[in-house]
Amino acid sequence: MNEAEGHSDNAHNQIIEGILCPICKSDLKTVEKLMIHVETLHSERSQGIGNDYDHKKYFNLIRNPILERHATQTNTLIIRLNKLLENRPRPSQIADRKQHDQKIVPWLDEKNVHLCPECAKKFNIMRGKHHCRLCGSVLCESCSHFLEIEDAKILIGQHEEENQTKQVKHDEEPDTLRTCEHCMRLLLNRKDIIETRVATHPIKKYYEKVQEIRKEIEPEIPIYNKIINSLYEGDSIYTIQDASALRGKILREAERIDDISKRILAIASPQGSREESLKKAIRLSMIRYIKEQLMNIPEIPLEDEIKKLQTKRTQELKQRIERERRLALEAYERYELHSTNNDTIKSSPASKKGSAVRTVDN
Fold this sequence. Notes:
GO molecular function: zinc ion binding
Order of helices and strands: HHHHEEEHEHHHHHHH
Radius of gyration: 48 Å
Pfam family, one: FYVE
Keywords: Metal-binding, Zinc, Zinc-finger
CATH class of the domain at 65-158 and 174-198: Alpha Beta
Strand content: under 5%
Strand order of the largest sheet: 1-2
Protein name: CSON006457 protein
CATH topology of the domain at 65-158 and 174-198: Herpes Virus-1
Helix content: 55-70%
Domain FYVE-type: 110-188
């Protein structure tokens, strides 16, 4: 009996390797054979093997009270912070500021606190006692945190209303609020949430930059076309330098748009997501815009070609002036001839006789 039990214990403690059946410990060599083995020989006992259990309900049961407690504590701190900033005395008015802070948040009696709750070190002459302005707890200087007033205004929503900050004199302390580790952590978490909500997505930021460039450069294109047409017509109002400077500006802005659209395409996003499709659509749209609107502007004529055009233009103007002068002279000569003929007819004898006859008849 003892030998059988010893043999059984040795078999039980033996290390077996391979793709084993969890029920009979047989080595099936492959996963496919293991699945067939379990389904055929252990179908009744395999129902509890490999089940998935959802712990989300248990997770929420633990997590939700913590979130609610943190939210309640944070909202309480925001309310206190708002009251502390109302009619707050200047940093130089130490006594008034201390009285103001204690009126908003009652301070814990420091006589009953002998150890710093943060570092657990004993208070003494070198390690003085201080109070958190938001919860009133006692802490030492090393464990104190200081909340900037500008950050406090962001938390209570007054940062945008007061764009101009007050200048602090050199002999005054910076305008801050002393807080403990716990209060500071809650406020910084809320600040991160606020900044995340108002933060601009990189795609939107880059796209708005592209729109600004387009708004700036599009009015320049008709002006450039006007300059080029003037040069091809032989006018001397504009020069090649004017056209070259404006063309260079347009092409530089085209390079900027191309670079920004590449940056948009390089932003990390999940494969196959709407964000990925949006990036590709913006990139294709910018390529089409650059090709059809910015790179399609006419070339600047060569200097020799402009000189020929200007010479031709000058000759045409001279010929037109000469033609108009000749036509005007011919018209003037016809007018003089017509006037001379009329005077001759009026001064002839027949004309006088006819006039006399008309007088007698009358």
